[in-house]
Design goal:
By secondary structure, this protein is an alpha/beta fold. The protein has 26 helices and 30 strands. The protein is elongated.
Length: 768
C-alpha cells in the first residue's frame, strides 16, 4: 500500500481543517462479512460499517456473526467513533415476522445505528415496534426517483440507497426533493439486474436473491442467439462464441470522489461482504486517504498510479468501470470474458492481503487516553481520564502515610500506564503524588481497571437505548392480531375473475374476441408503439368496453427520469374518467407518483411490489391500495396462509427474471430502437428470451418456459384469489386462444392444463 502509517497520520492532520465541516456530510461506509471484517474496516478508516447478523440479511452465506460477536462488534465500532448498520434487507415470510423483534432487541438496546431494509412489511413493523431506530431503504427496494423516496420518508425512513443504475443527476434530484440522506455504491461488484427485481437464481435453482441466497448464475457463460441448438451435456467451454453476457466489471468511482463531496452525497458505500476482511481493509484504506484528499484538495485531487494498481490487485473483473453516474450503460461496462489472474497478479494480491492483515486485522485499533493519576496521603486515590472529548473520574482506596518507603511516582507511572488487555492505551500520563504516601500496587491496578471500565461506559452510554422487553413484544404481537382479524374471509366459492395482460395488437384482438376475459391490461409500451400513448389508450379502452371487458394499463417495470410513462401518469385521472378501470403498477416510483395524484384506489400492485407478509399488505392498505399480486416466490402452503381476498395470482405467462439497464442488443451490436427479441442459451441448453423494451430503455429476460398453474385447479381455487392473471408476451394469437380456453375450463372447475411445455414455478417448491 502507499505510504506508511506515519505518513497517513500526517496527511490526515493536513486535511483536518477541511474535514471538520465536510466529513459530517460524506460518510465512508464499508462492508463487514464477519466480526474480523468489521474490525478491519473500522481499523482501516471507515466511518460506518454495514453487517448482517445470523438472519434476514442479503448475504446469507457470509460469515455473519452471532449475537454475542455482533454485540462486541457494535461496541468495538462505537468506541472508535464508527457507526454500525444492520442488514435486514431480505423479504420475510409470515412466520419469520414473529422472530424479528426478539432478534433485533439486543442490538437496538446496544445502540445499533440503523437497520437496512427491503421488505415493506419489515419497514411497517419496525416503525411500530422500534420507533426510535433509524431505517435505511436498501437498494433492493429499487428506488428510482423522488416520489418513491418521499413516500419512504413519510414512513420514517431517514436514508435511501437508490438503484445503482441511476445517474448522479437523478441521485441529486432524489436528495433535493425528498430531503432524505442518499447513500451510493462507489466500489465493488455490480449486478446486471436492478437490485430487488431479479428472480433468475430463484427460478433456476430455488436460491432467492430476495432472501440473501443468490447463486449468481448471471456470471456464467451463455450463448447469444445460438443457431447450432446447443444442448445440455455438451461443454459450453468448447464454444468460442460463449461469453459472460450478463457479467459487469467491478465499480470503481474513486476518481469521482470530489464530485460526490461537492454534490453533498451523504454516504459512499463499498460493496464486498462476501469478500475477505483483507479486501475490505485494503479498499477502505485507499478510499479513506483519497476521500480525505477530496475534502481538502478539491481542485488538485488525484489518485496515484500506486493506489489505482492496489485497488486493481485487490480484486477486479477485467478492469473497472465508473458505473452509471455519467453513463446510461454500454459494452465498456461489461466483463464479457472472465479475467484469469496471472502469476504476477496472484503474487501481488497475496502480498497486499498479507500487508492488510498485519496492518488492520492482526492488531486492534487502540483508543488513546490522556490520564492523570493522583496519589496523596489522607485522600482516596483518583484517576482522571480523557478520551474523544469526554472526561471521567474514578476513585480508589484511601491513601495512607508511608511508614517506611513511600510509593514513588515511577512505580505509579509504571503500573497505571499498562493497558491491561483493554481497548485503551495511555498516550499521556501525569502522576501527582506528595512523596510520602503508600498504596498497594494491587490498588493502583484496581483503580486503573475501574477507570478504564468507567471510560468505556461513558463512551458507549450515549448510544444505548432503554427498551422494555414486554412492551416491544406486545407491539410485535399486534401483527399477529392484525393478521387474524383479516383471516377467515375468503373468496373461495365465488367465480374467479380472469384478467389478461397483452403486449401486442394481435394478442389484444384474440382476447377481445374471447368470452374468458373479464379485464384486459394493456402494456404501456404497446401504447407508445402505436403513436400518442394517451390517444392510443383512449382508443383501446373504448374497444375493451365495447367488447364487454374492463380495461387496465400496465405501467413500466422501471420508472425513472427520461424513461417513464409520464404522459400516461399525467393523464391518469382523465383516463379513469373515460372508463379505464385500473393501473397495474410494477415499480415503487409509479406507485408513489399515482399516490401523490390521489389515485390509490385505482391501482393494483404487481408481484414486483412484494407483499410477502401481512405487514407488507398492511403497509399498502394504509396508503389506500388493497389490491395486489401474489409474490412469485411463495409456494402453495405459504399462499394459503395469506389474505388473498383482494389479490391476483399470475396463473400463466413467461416470468420476467431480470430487468436490466444494460441492453444486450446495444452491447453486442448497436442500438436499433426496434424492440428486438434475443435469446440467451445457458450451459444446460435452456433458452431465455430477452426483450429489448426500447420505449423505456431496459431489457427484460424471461424464463425459458411459461408458468402455468391452470392444471392445478382444486389447489389454486382453494386459495381464494380474487382473480387470476394470464400474461402474454411473445405468444401468437393461436396460443393466446388456447390459453384463454384453458382458463375458461379452470374457472368452470374442469381440467385446465395446456398442451405446451410449462413450469409450475414456485407453486409447489417455493424458496429457502
Amino acid at each position: 500500500m502507499t505510504g506508511t502509517d506515519k505518513e497517513d497520520e500526517e496527511r490526515r492532520g493536513d486535511c483536518q481543517s477541511a474535514i471538520t465541516f465536510l466529513h459530517m456530510r460524506t460518510e465512508l461506509l464499508a462492508p463487514a462479512g464477519s466480526l474480523d471484517g468489521l474490525k478491519a474496516s473500522v481499523n482501516a478508516g471507515a466511518d460506518a460499517v454495514y453487517i448482517g447478523g445470523s438472519a434476514f440479511g442479503a448475504r446469507a452465506y457470509a460469515d455473519n456473526p452471532g449475537e454475542e460477536d455482533l454485540l462486541r462488534g457494535i461496541e468495538y465500532a462505537h468506541l472508535r467513533g464508527a457507526k454500525v448498520y444492520l442488514t435486514v434487507n431480505t423479504l420475510l415470510k409470515e412466520q419469520e415476522l414473529a422472530q424479528l423483534a426478539d432478534y433485533l432487541l439486543p442490538y437496538v438496546r446496544e445502540g445499533l445505528d440503523a437497520v437496512l431494509v427491503q421488505d415493506f412489511g419489515v419497514l411497517h413493523f419496525l416503525r411500530r415496534v422500534f420507533p426510535s431506530l433509524p431505517i435505511h431503504a436498501s437498494t433492493q427496494m429499487t428506488v428510482t426517483g423522488p416520489a418513491s423516496a418521499s413516500l419512504l420518508r413519510s414512513y420514517g425512513v431517514s436514508r435511501v440507497v437508490p438503484a445503482r443504475e441511476l445517474s448522479l443527476k437523478e441521485l441529486l434530484r432524489i436528495k433535493e426533493e425528498s430531503g432524505l440522506e442518499v447513500e451510493i455504491f462507489v466500489h465493488g461488484a455490480l449486478c446486471y439486474c436492478y437490485s430487488g427485481q431479479c428472480l433468475l437464481s430463484s427460478v433456476i435453482g430455488g436460491r432467492s436473491g430476495n432472501r440473501g441466497r443468490c447463486a449468481q448464475p448471471c456470471r456464467l457463460l451463455n450463448l447469444l442467439n445460438d443457431k447450432d441448438n446447443f444442448r445440455g451435456g455438451e461443454s459450453i467451454l468448447d464454444r468460442p462464441d460463449a461469453r459472460h453476457y450478463m457479467s459487469l466489471k467491478d465499480l470503481c468511482a474513486i476518481q469521482l470522489l470530489p464530485e460526490f463531496v461537492r454534490s453533498g452525497i451523504d454516504s459512499l458505500k463499498i460493496e464486498g461482504r462476501m469478500k475477505r476482511p483483507e479486501y475490505a481493509a485494503g479498499v477502505v484504506s485507499i478510499y479513506r486517504r483519497c476521500l480525505d484528499r477530496a475534502f481538502a484538495l478539491d481542485k488538485n485531487y488525484s489518485v496515484s498510479d500506486e493506489e489505482q494498481k492496489a485497488l486493481y490487485d485487490l480484486y477486479n473483473r477485467n478492469g473497472f468501470t465508473e458505473g452509471y453516474f455519467h453513463h446510461r450503460g454500454g459494452k465498456e461496462m461489461m466483463a464479457f470474458v472472465k479475467h484469469v489472474l496471472s502469476k504476477e497478479e496472484v503474487t501481488a494480491r497475496q502480498a497486499l492481503y498479507q500487508d492488510m492483515h498485519e496492518r488492520y486485522i492482526s492488531k486492534e485499533k487502540p483508543l488513546f487516553l490522556e490520564a492523570v493519576c493522583t496519589v496523596e496521603a489522607g485522600k482516596r486515590a483518583e484517576a482522571e481520564l480523557s478520551c474523544e472529548g469526554k472526561t471521567i473520574r474514578a476513585y480508589g482506596d484511601e491513601v495512607h502515610q508511608a511508614l517506611k518507603r513511600p510509593l514513588s511516582g515511577e512505580r505509579i507511572y509504571e503500573n497505571f500506564s499498562k493497558d491491561g488487555g483493554t481497548d485503551f492505551r495511555i498516550r499521556e500520563l501525569t502522576v501527582r503524588t506528595d512523596g510520602k504516601s503508600f498504596l498497594p500496587i494491587s490498588a493502583i491496578n484496581e483503580l486503573r481497571r475501574s477507570a478504564f471500565w468507567k471510560m468505556r461506559e461513558c463512551l458507549l452510554e450515549p448510544y444505548r437505548r432503554q427498551l422494555d422487553s414486554e412492551l416491544v413484544r406486545t407491539a410485535a404481537g399486534s401483527c399477529l392480531l392484525m393478521k387474524e382479524s383479516s383471516s377467515g374471509q375468503s373468496t373461495e366459492g365465488k367465480p374467479c375473475r380472469i384478467h389478461v395482460l397483452v403486449s401486442g395488437e394481435e394478442q389484444l384482438d384474440a382476447v377481445l374476441a374471447s368470452p374468458h376475459a373479464d379485464l384486459v391490461y394493456i402494456e404501456a409500451a404497446l401504447l407508445y408503439r402505436m403513436g400518442d400513448p394517451v390517444e392510443s389508450a383512449l382508443a383501446l379502452v373504448r374497444r375493451c368496453i365495447a367488447a364487454g371487458k374492463e380495461a387496465g394499463i400496465a405501467l413500466p417495470r422501471i420508472d425513472r427520469e427520461g424513461s417513464s410513462a409520464s404522459e400516461l401518469k399525467e393523464a391518469a385521472a382523465m383516463l379513469l374518467q373515460e372508463g379505464l378501470s385500473v393501473f397495474l403498477v410494477r415499480s415503487l416510483e409509479s406507485f408513489a407518483d399515482l399516490l401523490q395524484r390521489g389515485l390509490a384506489p385505482s391501482m393494483r400492485l404487481d408481484a414486483s411490489l412484494y407483499t410477502f407478509n401481512s405487514e407488507a399488505q398492511e403497509f399498502f392498505r394504509e396508503l389506500g391500495t388493497d389490491r395486489d399480486t401474489a409474490p412469485i416466490e411463495l409456494n402453495r402452503r405459504e399462499l394459503s396462509g395469506r389474505d388473498n381476498r383482494f389479490s391476483e395470482i399470475v396463473a400463466y405467462g413467461y416470468l420476467p427474471l431480470m430487468i436490466s439497464a444494460q441492453c444486450l442488443k446495444k452491447n453486442t451490436d448497436s442500438c436499433t430502437k426496434r424492440g428486438d427479441t434475443l435469446t440467451l442459451t445457458d450451459r444446460t441448453g435452456s433458452k431465455f428470451f430477452v426483450s429489448c423494451e426500447c420505449v423505456f430503455c431496459y431489457n427484460v429476460l424471461y424464463n425459458t418456459l411459461p408458468l402455468s398453474l391452470l392444471g392445478e385447479g382444486p389447489a389454486l381455487a382453494a386459495l381464494g384469489f380474487e382473480s387470476i392473471r394470464l400474461e402474454f408476451t411473445m405468444e401468437d394469437a393461436e396460443l393466446v386462444k388456447s390459453v384463454l380456453a384453458a382458463a375458461g375450463r379452470f374457472r368452470e372447475g374442469r381440467e385446465g392444463g395446456l398442451a405446451v411445455s410449462c413450469t409450475k414455478g414456485h407453486f409447489l417448491r417455493g424458496v429457502i
